[in-house]
Amino acid sequence: MTKVRLARATARAWRRGQLAHRCDVAMPDEPARPARPELLPANRMPKRGRGGSERGRLALLHALAHIEFAAIDLAFDAAGRFGGDFPRRFADDWIGVGADEAMHFAVLERRLRALGSSYGALPAHAGLWEAAAATAHDAAARMAVVPMVLEARGLDVTPETVARVRSGGDETSARILQRIYTDEIRHVGIGAKWFGYLCAAADIVPASHWQMLVRRHFRGAIKPPFNDSARAAAGLTRDFYMPLVPLTSVGSQDQR
Hints:
This protein has helices at residues 2-15, 54-82, 88-114, 127-134, 139-167, 171-202, 206-217, 228-233, 238-241, 247-250.
């Protein structure tokens, strides 16, 4: 797919020093997308189940492929939109993340084809890009919401998903998801690192500033279960997210 090829080519050119560290071209309001999948509002998306059946597993892999496809756009948008306000290492990190997301999408799309399906066979939604649009004005808000909320949620749910897929006899898909999970811990950590950089530069307490930005820019709820160990490995400790958890949810926290 064109986006995957361009992501990889851009990352190679960046690593080789063939691209200048300049962010003087306006980023687009919307990324280029293929004709399929059909994009629906999140509340109109069909329920995909838990991935136990073959049909449910295809729906799960398709949804994850779409997340990774959107994540390519999110990573390169962060580098291009905000890179001029940071040291070069910021662009190094996010271009590298974009290359990772392209690889994740490619292996998921290949797996879908091996199972008789393909990316675009099912509808998807544009919720991830909506979060990018809502934080396009503020690098701290982008770091707070996209890697430290949305990607962190993936850390919470992926281990159970891997176990479910493995118990259904699909070891190949389980290994793919485990590899993606390992990479995503690092990606959340990159977001947390640069959020901390901004807070240190402004002499702001990171946890309370993160909570303010999440309340302002994230529509959903921060709720358990949490994969506390994976979050902590990424630099996202409980003092960030637990104050935003409704009291009615605290008792259901999954201790990991």
